[in-house]
Amino acid sequence: MSYPRPVPVIGDATSAAERAGDPAGWAMPEEAGGLYAVVAARRDVRRYRPDPVPDDVLQRVLAAGHSAPSVGHSQPWRFVVVRDPAVRDRAAVLTDRERLRQAAQLEPDAARRLLDLQLEGVREAPLGIVVCCDRRTPAAGVLGRATFPDADLWSCAAAIQNLWLAARAEGLGMGWVTLFRPEELAGLVGLPDGVATLGWLCLGWPDERPPAPGLQRAGWSRRLPLSAVVVEDRWPADDGGPPAPPSHLRAPGREAVVGARDEADRLLTPPGSLGVLDRAVDRVVALGRGGVTGGTLVLAAADHPVAALGVSAYGGSVTRDVVRAALAGTSVGTTAAAAAGLGTVVVDAGVDGDPLPGAVGARPVGPRGDLASAPALTGDDVARLLDAGRTLAAAHPGLLALGEAGVGNTTVAAALAAGLLGADPAEVTGLGAGADSDVLERKRAVVAAAVARAGGGLDPATALAELGGPELAVLAGVVLGAAADRSAVVLDGFAVSVAALAAVQLEPGVQACLVAGQRSRERGHDLVLQALGLEPLLDLRLRAGEGAGAALAAGLLLDGLRVRRGTARVG
After folding, report:
1. Is the terminal CB of the chain with fewer CB neighbours within 10 Å at N or C?
2. What is the mean pLDDT of residues 483-493?
């Protein structure tokens, strides 16, 4: 049964179906021609009539500047409108002084040509506008500036462009004058510390109507053709750019991603009503797996020579006991998997002792080191284990939950995380299960020694060999195989997430198939989740490992898919 679509009385009243039916429906064809004409006719004006600018016109121009886009909607611009002739005269002296300074730095002929140019109209224009950027809010406190701290300055530059276009549309001339030392212009208009200036704008009725940019007409330079400034995808390798990294896997295309969101928009519920779970469901639907009703827990286990260095609270026999319980269906991970409707595959990736009956064998055959003094694996073993993981994924399509077991493997995961991310070993090394401060101190020393021995700048396959473990290599291969098959992968805690990070660094496209099942208590997990760009479904402070968190999250994800399939649709 279909229901009428609830139409919000605020915000966007359109539906995904409407937008899909007319992607260009937001266009303003009547206004577009005028906009492009204004853009093409904008000029840097230097000569002005003395006639005043009416206040209503000035307000419209300033309002256009105030409508500019700003990072994090921070609106950092401030407009100091200068009418006082005395302030304008002092500003003109500063520009004259700077013009001579700049000419002195040029070759004699270029200097003479510069001095022949009128580069500003500070004295003539009836109005000056000093555009300032209030930078007193810390960059980390503004959405978008933590990564690009200067984005507030870019926002102010966008405001200047809006002012310029509005002025041109009103028939006004505007010129952007930067012939100032910033500290001198700031002092002229009394700016406090933390407020920067982007220059002086002259505004008034123009006493010139230049058909082309002034410096172009003066023979100073010419406008480049558009083709000279447009680059496709990445900087050309023949112009100093690095070659593109090889890539064999692709994330779902934009049609699949948008299609999943369009389908969710047809539900009789507000968009995103299930929060983080909705995003995870969208991701599975975009992979083409929206109809999945079950899945498989892949539990990979191995022992590690590094455990002999006192980095764990448990003896080596515990790994084998956990695997035997998993094969019997009674470990915490397999019990959680059964409760979520998942089957289980147990992989013996290097458990000490004889091979375990019932487990899938994927053991390394070469020498294995303790990380601190020797590499964990050979390069050939890493390649074999990755292939074994790919084969496992191909045999279990749909939904995979990943888990691990192995005494000492939080030390391995910390070393591998530090190597992959270039992180401080202390920032990614935590207690693990049941450890105390003495164990933690030994772990940190081992991880630091391992990273120092391996060196920096490792590619992910080499990092797996130098700093990884066999179960992590198998799980990285499972992620790669799942992505190739468009299967969704639910990650467990720290160690599994580090394995997934290695896979993503090998093939960035695999990130689109990943769902973070949980945030564990292990130090470093947050850093790895950030590197993966994933927000976890659960935050229960689990320490269980063995895929328990992944299984619980997979059950929640399957429930979310059932909710998506069963919720009423709107017409």
Report:
1. N
2. 96
